[in-house]
């Protein structure tokens, strides 16, 4: 086993042992890991202990305060159940309520006043034992009504038995847990969804001490909820309020109460435990804090998961590990920096040589000192500098060459439209002696001025104005046979395009559509945006271009600008020289992604000028 492990780690150990810097890095890393781990475990243990003590202290004080408030609340209920007037008069009224109308009204008024005295009272029942009937208070149509109903004997009800056995002549009834059919069959028709507790006061005769009646008060949880909300309650914690006989009255989770009753938790909560104990349930460990009232022994219980108590300590432990890792990284960096200080110039020189070999001609080695490495770095920098000078000279020559080609291509644009315009002006002057001649001459002058301007690239709005003047001149030649439509996206009016580019496309429509037929031809000039291109299109509904001729034009457009020979051109090449020159200008100005596309059939021809989004490239 040892041999196998040694073989696995042998290459790594050999690599580390080659240099002193690696040994120092390994040593400091081990020391820092040991120190940080030890400190983290020590601080984690201290924080856990402190978290438990803090939770015990704060929860104990909180439970004590809320427990006293709940005890005062129960005392108030006890005082409420005693007759607020002369006991003799109330006792007399109970004895004679069946045969004396005044006594009956006395009892009803007493119950009404009692109902009005508390906001948390849901119902009041007064059971007259000898008559086997009860008075009960209800709220009907916003009026408080006292009604009388017969009821079987209550001697077998569990709450009545507890009241008989109690030295205080009272008993409490909980509705937290579901009642068995035996318990609910002989009891009052109480809405247990609204009531959380029933309080039963046994009224005895002063003389004979025999039970005469039972006053039952049923309360909702509005007051207890208000009192209990003063206890901080987080997710995972539980809260219970149980009677001295371990009957739950307020709980947050019934299933948890059933588990705790099964495990005998409530029986373990005695004054001898000091108000806290540790209890486990299904792998979950709880710190159970409780307060027992001194007067009757009611228990206010709050189980808190230890996981939640230790959360702060766990978070601190993670933070300590993170800080330790940060210190480890900083230490490794410092040790590496110190150990590699001597060899760093040579590494830097090697890195710059590698960059230079891969085509990064901005590589420059740092020169430190005057030793042999500094000598090599200095001469390497001189070599890079000379290389960059040669590259820059070559690049400048290429730019000059491309600009010269651009100028030559512009000069090759076919000027035949100028002669046609002059002929149209002459014809118009002979046939019509009016002011239209002036407009045509003005358009021609502006057209000539635009053509001879020295700019290579113009805004689209300028080119469109030029096209309008150009088409006005052509309108004189073709008349109503030439129809023009525009569909230009306003966002593309500032687009920078080659000068006379749209004119080249329009000339093609005139030459291959209007001049070929005698019918009306519509020329449509439009521009729109796609995710990758700004597209300028010129369409016509003329006879179209034959498939053979279309293929010749497309193949001509694919010839690179630097592949053009100086020999004579074929007839097809001469006819498509304008399109060919425009396509070449687009690629020189915008890159290889730019260019012309042509589609044609018997219904017309469409020419698209595609410009990559983002404007002019770095090609000119």
Automatic annotation (TrEMBL):
The chain crosses the membrane at residues 24-47. PROSITE patterns: HAMP (PS50885). CDD domains: HAMP. Gene3D superfamilies: 6.10.340.10, Histidine kinase-like ATPase, C-terminal domain. This is Two-component sensor histidine kinase. Residues 340-392 form the HAMP domain. Its main location: membrane. It holds the Pfam family His_kinase. It is found in: Cell membrane. It comes from Paenibacillus helianthi. It is a multi-pass membrane protein. It comes from the Bacteria. InterPro entries: Bact_2-comp_sensor_kinase, HAMP_dom, HATPase_C_sf, HATPase_dom, Sig_transdc_His_kin_internal. Keywords: Cell membrane, Kinase, Membrane, Phosphoprotein, Transferase, Transmembrane, Transmembrane helix. GO terms for molecular function: kinase activity.
């Amino acid at each position: 086993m040892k041999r196998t492990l040694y073989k696995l780690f042998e290459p790594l150990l050999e690599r580390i042992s080659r240099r002193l810097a690696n040994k120092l890095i390994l040593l400091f890393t081990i020391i820092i890991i040991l120190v940080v781990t030890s400190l983290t475990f020590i601080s984690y243990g201290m924080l856990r202990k402190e978290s438990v003590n803090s939770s015990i202290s704060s929860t104990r004080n909180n439970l004590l305060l809320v427990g006293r408030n709940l005890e005062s609340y129960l005392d108030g209920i006890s005082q409420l159940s005693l007759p607020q007037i002369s006991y003799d008069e109330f006792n007399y009224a109970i004895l004679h309520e069946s045969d004396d109308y005044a006594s009956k009204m006395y009892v009803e008024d007493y119950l009404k006043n009692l109902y009005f005295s508390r906001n948390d009272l849901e119902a009041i029942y007064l059971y007259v034992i000898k008559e086997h009937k009860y008075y009960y208070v209800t709220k009907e149509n916003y009026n408080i009504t006292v009604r009388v109903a017969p009821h079987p004997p209550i001697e077998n009800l569990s709450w009545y038995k507890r009241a008989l056995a109690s030295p205080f002549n009272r008993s409490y009834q909980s509705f937290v847990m579901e009642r068995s059919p035996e318990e609910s069959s002989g009891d009052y028709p109480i809405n247990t969804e609204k009531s959380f507790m029933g309080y039963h006061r046994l009224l005895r005769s002063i003389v004979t001490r025999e039970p005469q009646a039972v006053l039952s008060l049923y309360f909702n949880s509005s007051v207890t909820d208000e009192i209990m909300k003063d206890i901080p309650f987080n997710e995972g914690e539980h809260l219970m309020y149980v009677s001295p006989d371990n009957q739950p009255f307020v709980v947050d989770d019934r299933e948890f109460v059933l588990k705790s009753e099964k495990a005998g938790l409530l029986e373990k909560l005695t004054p001898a435990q000091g108000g806290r104990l540790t209890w486990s349930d299904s792998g979950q460990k709880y710190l159970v804090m409780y307060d027992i009232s001194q007067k009757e022994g009611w228990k206010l219980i709050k189980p808190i998961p230890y996981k939640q108590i230790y959360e702060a300590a766990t978070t601190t432990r993670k933070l300590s590990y993170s800080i330790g890792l940060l210190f480890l990284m900083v230490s490794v960096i410092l040790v590496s920096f110190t150990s590699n200080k001597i060899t760093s110039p040579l590494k830097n020189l090697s890195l710059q040589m590698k960059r230079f070999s891969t085509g990064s001609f901005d590589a420059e080695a740092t020169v430190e000192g005057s030793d042999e490495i500094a000598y090599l770095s200095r001469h390497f920098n001189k070599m890079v500098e000379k290389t960059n000078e040669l590259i820059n000279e070559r690049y400048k020559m290429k730019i000059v060459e491309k600009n010269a080609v651009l100028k030559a291509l512009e000069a090759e644009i076919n000027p035949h439209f100028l002669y046609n315009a002059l002929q149209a002006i002459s014809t118009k002057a002979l046939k019509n002696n009016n002011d239209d001649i002036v407009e045509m001459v003005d358009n021609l002058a502006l057209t000539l001025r635009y053509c001879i301007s020295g700019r290579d690239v113009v805004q689209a709005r300028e080119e469109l104005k030029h096209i309008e003047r150009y088409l006005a001149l052509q309108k004189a030649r073709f008349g109503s046979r030439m129809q023009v439509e525009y569909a230009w996206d306003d966002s593309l009016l500032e687009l920078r395009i080659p000068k006379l580019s749209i004119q080249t496309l329009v000339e093609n429509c005139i030459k291959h559509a209007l001049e070929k037929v005698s019918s009306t031809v519509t020329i449509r000039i439009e521009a729109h945006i796609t995710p990758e291109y700004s597209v300028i299109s010129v369409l016509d509904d003329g006879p179209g271009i034959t498939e053979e001729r279309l293929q010749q034009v497309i193949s001509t457009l694919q010839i690179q600008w630097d592949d053009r020979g100086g020999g004579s051109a074929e007839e097809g090449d001469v006819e498509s020289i304008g399109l060919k020159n425009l396509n070449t200008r687009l690629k020189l100005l915008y890159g290889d992604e730019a260019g012309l596309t042509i589609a044609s059939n018997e219904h017309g021809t469409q020419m698209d000028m595609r410009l990559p989004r983002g404007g002019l490239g770095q090609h000119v």
